[in-house]
Amino acid sequence: MNKKILTNNFVQGSILITGSTFFVSILNYVFNLIIARGVSLADYGEYYSVIAHVVILTIPCGAFASILIRKIGSVEPEERTAYAYSLEQWLLSKLRSNLHLLVVGSAILYSFLLFKSNLESISILFILLMSFLTIWQMFFLATMQAYKAFLLFGIYTVATSLLRLITGAGITLISGKLPFLLAALLGVMITQVISGHLLLFRKVKLKANPVTFPNFVTLITKPTIIIPLLTTLGIVGLSNLDIILVKKFMSESDAGLYGAYSLLSKIIFFVAGPLASVGYIFFTGKEHKKSTNLILAAIVFLTLIIGASATSFYFFFSHFTISMFFDDRFLSFSQFLWLGGVYGTLYSLVMLFAQYFIAKNSKISTLALIALVFQAGGIYFFHNDLQNVMSVNILVSFVLLLVYLSAFVIQWLTDSKKVTEHVHNTRSLH
Questions:
Q1: Which residue segment(s) compose the domain that 377 sits in?
Q2: Are residues 287 and 182 both part of a single domain?
Q3: 262 and 200, same structural domain?
Q4: Closest residue by Cα to residue 281 from 70, 66, 15
Q5: pTM for this one?
Q6: pLDDT digits (tens, 9 = 90+) for 338-355
Q7: Burial code of 313-322, b = ≥16 C-beta within 10 A, e = fewer?
């Protein structure tokens, strides 16, 4: 039975994607640590805010990727390469025909960020270009998944992350200047896009055929798309909007310190995150329906153990932790480091329950978007110091977790009642 499960394509693909994603997260974490050591506090705050902007702006790419995977996966396997190539050419033609709208939209966004974000002009240009390139990278990643080329997906993501680490770290250690680092990262992303195209289409002689693509607005309003999209916007926003607002409202050095604090708090998520991903795989499987609650409880328990261990370590060894990962410039937030452990634990649990409700296609998961609004309001009114911002994040995450947990308990009690009534009715008939 175990051998049959392990040889299942779905299980193998899930293991490869989860494993490669986890390894890529580690590489990205190491990269961020090197950047923190190699640039000034002000530049690190600027860099971390820039990345947060890119992450939030490219959230819709997740919905775009889901649509692509379904479209490409719906055709016969032998026709998928030609169809994916036709889709790529269709997207390019749409880009050329709507280039004027792209330029106008970019100009408006550039002006808005220039006056509202407290970022440098070069950083805003980087945000716009990187967001655009990310869409194309997402196209190739989605195509690999639609092909069921999970090994290729893993090799591609790990190799490009290694290239990013080596290039970015090298530039940082040599110059320590943010503009050079941003230029290097753009170069790496361009390389990723080109290599993605070559990997998928270089060896095959293809001709672009006319394709019909459903109206994007129609697709995105479907519950199976809009619920994950809104939930992702809320969940990802909760871990990035605070960075953007700290950069806007507080000093450059505080932004750098907060970036380091945020990075350490996310260590817990990087460890517990793959558990949530694995959980999502089981939550969506019909064969695991009866054991879903048990699986959820097990992952919650493991996450609490990881979070409690990290929080305790941060509390008793804060100076050691900061000195190990960063340097003495960051010691000023050592007394609050344990709060990062609390926040990281709460956020990991929130992510887990959000995945659970997404798998159930439940609108409850979208409450994360409402929590994001409260987080923004809280930081807007309470940003006198970094501890205030930390407290707002913890409070919002705690309340959202309580709401998710309450909804889960209510749903569990309702389902149990239905099962009991069904058994009772069945026995009455006999």
A1: 251-419
A2: no
A3: no
A4: 15
A5: 0.87
A6: 999 999 999 999 998 998
A7: bbeeebeebb
